[in-house]
């Protein structure tokens, strides 16, 4: 039961981390390209 709860928390953290890093990296890449859309 404890392992199951830990695995669920770990999976939730991976999913949230992936989405948050996508939303954090998008403006950085946009500014890095000088505000113009990448080709």
UniProtKB/TrEMBL annotation:
Keywords assigned: Membrane, Transmembrane, Transmembrane helix
Domain Protein export membrane protein SecD/SecF C-terminal span(s) in chain numbering: 2-33
Transmembrane segments: 6-32
Name under which the protein is recorded: Protein export membrane protein SecD/SecF C-terminal domain-containing protein
């Amino acid at each position: 039961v404890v392992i199951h709860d830990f695995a669920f928390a770990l999976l939730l953290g991976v999913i949230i981390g992936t989405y948050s890093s996508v939303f954090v990296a998008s403006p950085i890449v946009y500014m890095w390209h000088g505000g113009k859309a990448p080709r």
